[in-house]
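Students often ask why inverse folding is considered easier than folding. One informal answer: many sequences map to the same fold, so there is more than one right answer. In these notes we will look at a single instance of the problem. The structure comes first.
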């Protein structure tokens, strides 16, 4: 695996740079705290690693053979993320209050994993990983599993940094108005990150 170091750098850049998942982790941590956001982080990271495995074991080849299916999946993801951004933008905001936040529905483990299924950035990343770093031939399944495990190990602390960033930003949003503005900014960032991955 002479490409291990380049892959680790690729995994770091793919995980730390802004995307739909990063934005949602940031917003969740600002609202509910780091501990409450950990299920979202774990779900997102394990979900992305599972997609790398699925693509490496044949799904990627299927998508390359059927570009219209890949195109349709990408657009479904963009539209779903756009709807989610609209919901965040238009939802009424409240001040950061521990008791109120405890009663709100949060994005958890399953939502984090499911998000990767509709996240164009995750699919492009997985296709790139398999195409560039998983050399075809004997032992490919083991190589794909290793790449997925390394990606998981790198993505966890990267998304953790976004959660810490969100918690630090929460100190600035103690009023309902400030929290509303923050939610709107997060919604716009989510929308932009989704459309940057659109198959134009």
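Output (designed amino acids):
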């Amino acid at each position: 695996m002479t490409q291990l170091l380049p892959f680790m750098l690729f995994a770091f850049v793919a995980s730390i740079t802004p995307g739909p998942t990063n934005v949602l982790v940031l917003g969740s941590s600002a609202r509910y705290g780091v501990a409450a956001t950990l299920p979202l982080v774990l779900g997102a990271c394990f979900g992305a690693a599972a997609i790398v495995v699925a693509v490496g074991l044949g799904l990627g080849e299927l998508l390359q053979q059927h570009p219209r299916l890949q195109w349709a999946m990408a657009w479904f993801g963009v539209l779903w993320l756009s709807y989610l951004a609209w919901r965040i933008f238009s939802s009424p905001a409240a001040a950061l209050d521990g008791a109120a936040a405890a009663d709100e529905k949060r994005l958890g483990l399953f939502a984090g994993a499911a998000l990767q299924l509709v996240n164009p950035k995750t699919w492009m990343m997985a296709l790139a990983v398999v195409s560039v770093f998983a050399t075809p031939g004997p032992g490919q399944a083991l190589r794909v599993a290793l790449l997925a495990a390394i990606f998981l190990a790198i993505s966890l602390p990267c998304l953790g940094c976004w959660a810490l960033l969100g918690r630090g930003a929460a100190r600035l949003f103690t009023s309902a108005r400030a929290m509303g503005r923050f939610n709107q900014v997060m919604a716009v960032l989510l929308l932009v990150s989704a459309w940057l991955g659109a198959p134009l």
